[in-house]
Amino acid sequence: MPDLAKQRIRSKFEAFVLDAGQATMHKSHGEAKTTAIGAMRGTIVELGPGTGANMRYYAPGVKVIGIEPNPAMHERLRAKARDHHVDLEIRTLRGEAIDVADESADGVVGTLVLCGVDDASRVLTEVRRVLRPGGTYFFVEHVAAPAGTGTRRAQELLVRPHRWLFNGCEVNRETANVVRAAGFSEVHIDEIDTGMRGGHIRHFIRGTATK
Hints:
Blueprint: H1 3-20, H2 22-38, E1 43-47, E2 63-67, H3 74-83, E3 87-91, E4 105-111, H4 120-130, E5 131-142, H5 150-165, H6 175-180, E6 186-193, E7 203-210
Parallel strand pairs: 1-2, 1-4, 2-3, 4-5
Antiparallel strand pairs: 5-7, 6-7
């Protein structure tokens, strides 16, 4: 099968899995998302909005620019935006090069994004560039389990098939360190372990970074 056809199949599979996992993500992170995302006003850039899991959390009247490189997500994303009355503009770009003007975003949202980009540091440089001074970046990311644990060993064993299935997602990244080193004026990070039910993706970080 040609590589392009395989990529389309993986993209459709990823969209299906994201849709299927929305209820679980809402149970684990919905309260934090409601507080952080719901407080944002003005123009918001969402990195990798996928099939629109975060549309439910946006306040009325905000403008959302969705940076979503996977076209297989777009139809479901638009539908979710319509369902929740979100003014959404989709740009088919990767997070390492956001076509958004300097200091033009009041907030940035990125959930389950930094695990799958080629250069997380570059993405965070773009986040800081587009944020207005005092603007907030809200993130949720699954990350590497503690070294020496069975979960970490499972992550290392499954990293290649997981990456292939989910278009580059690597769940064994030390993402918290990357966020802390990105140059934000203030960073708050909570470490979350969802337990055995989470399998090899049970460990998350969730927090905010302020420009």
